[in-house]
Structure prediction request, 164 residues.
Amino acid sequence: MYSKIEEPKRCISEKAMKVWRISESLINMGVLVVLCIVFYLDVYFEWKYWIGWIIIGLLGMTVLSAIWGIFIEPSLKQKYWRYDVDEEFIQLKSGIWNRKHQLIPMTKVQSVELVQGPLLRKFQLYSISVGTMGSSHKIPAIPQEEARELRDQIAHYAKIKEVE
Prediction:
């Protein structure tokens, strides 16, 4: 008889929302700048009239995408991202529209690493990357101390040896 696996309860950091918002803002600003330059070129060189309408449509879609990606999506991602680690499994549960609940057996874990880009560093967060035979799984935006403890815990449960 199988034992019931409890739903994961641990949340990622609320600071993750700030990181995702800043990242999304930078991406959308870059896209808007490129589209504005192309629109200027369209007006300056008097390209075919329908090209301008396509550019305006793309600008509108970019604005809608920015509204979703900056104001709505980060809070929903933070709300629905859950994880847990025990001696048998790493559990990852995520998804706003399509919910995904992954169980990664500790026996399949081959590596675990902390990843920190410039934005995560600014907010003192790490992402944890767990490598298995054919794939890699990520737990985003964990506070520094908790991330180090979690990395060590996963390595201990998976019996990963540190190479010196």
About this structure: The radius of gyration is 21 Å.
